[in-house]
Design a protein that fits this description.
Elements: H1 2-17, E1 25-29, H2 38-43, H3 48-56, E2 60-65, E3 69-75, E4 80-86, E5 91-95, E6 99-108, E7 111-118, E8 123-131, E9 137-145, E10 150-160
Antiparallel strand pairs: 1-2, 1-10, 2-3, 3-4, 5-6, 6-7, 7-8, 8-9, 9-10
Length: about 160
């Protein structure tokens, strides 16, 4: 009976914490259909060598969205990166690519939106992830540099594993 109670409470509280968001799960990037992010990295001032390495990476993402947090685990051939992204909370952080930014993460319908606004300059990067009608996830990266009048949109596509 105690074992039954343990499993009941474990699954009850686990199901309360984890949502049934369509993005939850393991996603494998499809490099054949995905845009190169090289141009976005260049616009952010990333050097040639680092751009080539980052643009060539194939990424697997495990996404878990709860009521208060979006967790993204990225696995690449170079390293793993874990991000805990509090929902609806603006934070000032140091981003490896974008530098010092204000970050806000929101859920808009079935979309996960991560907005990075440069603290120093006038650039904004918005990454929007959502599941398309064909079951694939798309991560749209929309880069805007207001000082230079430059806007770029790149899409990376992922298949659910």
């Amino acid at each position: 009976f105690r074992l039954y109670l343990f499993f009941f409470f474990f699954f009850f509280f686990y199901s309360m914490e984890t949502s049934n968001h369509p993005l939850n799960g393991l996603w494998a990037m499809d490099p054949k259909t995905s845009d190169s992010i090289d141009e976005v990295l260049e616009a952010q001032g990333v050097g040639w060598a680092k751009r080539k390495v980052l643009a060539s990476l194939v990424v697997n993402e495990t996404i878990t969205i709860t009521d208060t947090l979006a967790k993204i685990h990225r696995h690449t051939s170079i390293r793993d990166i874990d991000e805990d992204l509090p929902l609806n909370t603006e934070e000032e952080i140091d981003n490896e690519v974008a530098g010092r930014v204000k970050r806000i993460v929101t859920i808009e319908g079935d979309k996960l939106v991560v907005k990075l606004t440069s603290v120093k300059g006038s650039s904004v990067v918005v990454n929007t992830r959502y599941v398309m009608d064909d079951g694939r996830m798309v991560c749209e990266t929309n880069f805007t540099d207001n000082d230079k009048g430059k806007t770029l949109l790149k899409r990376r596509y992922f298949n659910k594993k």
